[in-house]
Automatic annotation (TrEMBL):
<keyword id="KW-0342">GTP-binding</keyword>
<dbReference type="InterPro" id="IPR005765">
    <property type="entry name" value="UPRT"/>
</dbReference>
<comment type="similarity">
    <text>Belongs to the UPRTase family.</text>
</comment>
<dbReference type="Pfam" id="PF14681">
    <property type="entry name" value="UPRTase"/>
</dbReference>
<dbReference type="GO" id="GO:0044206">
    <property type="term" value="P:UMP salvage"/>
</dbReference>
<dbReference type="GO" id="GO:0006223">
    <property type="term" value="P:uracil salvage"/>
</dbReference>
<dbReference type="InterPro" id="IPR034332">
    <property type="entry name" value="Upp_B"/>
</dbReference>
<keyword id="KW-0547">Nucleotide-binding</keyword>
<keyword id="KW-0328">Glycosyltransferase</keyword>
<feature type="binding site">
    <location>
        <begin position="132"/>
        <end position="140"/>
    </location>
    <ligand>
        <name>5-phospho-alpha-D-ribose 1-diphosphate</name>
    </ligand>
</feature>
<dbReference type="GO" id="GO:0004845">
    <property type="term" value="F:uracil phosphoribosyltransferase activity"/>
</dbReference>
<feature type="binding site">
    <location>
        <begin position="200"/>
        <end position="202"/>
    </location>
    <ligand>
        <name>uracil</name>
    </ligand>
</feature>
<dbReference type="GO" id="GO:0000287">
    <property type="term" value="F:magnesium ion binding"/>
</dbReference>
<comment type="function">
    <text>Catalyzes the conversion of uracil and 5-phospho-alpha-D-ribose 1-diphosphate (PRPP) to UMP and diphosphate.</text>
</comment>
<dbReference type="InterPro" id="IPR029057">
    <property type="entry name" value="PRTase-like"/>
</dbReference>
<keyword id="KW-0808">Transferase</keyword>
<dbReference type="GO" id="GO:0005525">
    <property type="term" value="F:GTP binding"/>
</dbReference>
Length: 210
């Protein structure tokens, strides 16, 4: 994966995303759509993984059959909205190891502050897929990836549902080595840091909070 941003334009992804954006979509509907779309995005974000072969026996004969090479990959959810993407991706990659990064924004400095960090061991030997549905200002994504690199990760991909041009630019400047996979690149951020047209607050919509 060499391009910095992969925009997944598959009709199923785009159709489901439109349903998610609609303000009258219920919490249950939103969650179900997110689960479905996450699986389709997982398919894209794992494209080009290194492969090897394993000798197996079909009912007819032996063969060298393709399997994914290397250590189990690590999925890292950026709390809390990342958990919505995580569930669907895990359904497609059930043997993945899972980590969590929790960050909040300090009200005075406006800088992201870490409140939780737990990731799989041997991060340096794994493909790490960081998941967060909304790449908005990019501040928390950049900070989360800083932490993952500090913990040893060298091969990181970032998976989101919606990205703003500002967020993509911020990520590209801070982490040009981290490819982004997204279902949409929206118009801009508004003055409150929301993506427009967007889908609102992803965490609130998936968990039914306000
Ligand atoms: N986080 C969200 O949940 N929504 C946005 O539009 C921006 C950040």
């Amino acid at each position: 994966m060499n391009d910095h941003v992969t925009h997944v334009t598959h009709p199923l992804v785009q159709h489901k995303l439109t349903l998610m954006r609609q303000k009258d979509t219920s919490t249950a509907g939103f969650r179900q759509l997110l689960r479905e779309i996450s699986q389709l995005l997982a398919y894209e974000v794992t494209r080009g993984l290194p492969m090897t072969t394993r000798q197996i026996e079909t009912p007819l004969q032996k063969m060298d059959a393709p399997v994914i090479d290397g250590k189990k990959l690590a999925l890292v959810s950026i709390l809390r909205a990342g958990n919505g993407l995580l569930d669907g991706v895990l359904e497609l990659i059930p043997s993945a190891r899972v980590g969590f990064v929790g960050l909040y924004r300090d009200e005075v400095t406006l800088e992201p502050v870490q409140y939780y960090f737990k990731v799989p061991t041997e991060l340096e030997d794994r493909l790490v897929i960081a998941v967060d549905p909304m790449l908005a200002t990019g501040n928390s994504s950049v900070a989360a990836i800083d932490l993952l690199k500090k913990a040893g990760a060298t091969n990181i991909r970032f998976l989101c549902l919606l990205a703003s041009p500002e967020g993509i630019a911020r990520m590209k400047q801070a982490h040009p080595d981290v490819p982004i996979v997204t279902a949409a690149i929206d118009e801009k951020l508004n003055e409150k840091g929301y993506i427009v047209p967007g889908l609102g607050d992803a965490g609130d919509r998936m968990f039914g909070t306000k």
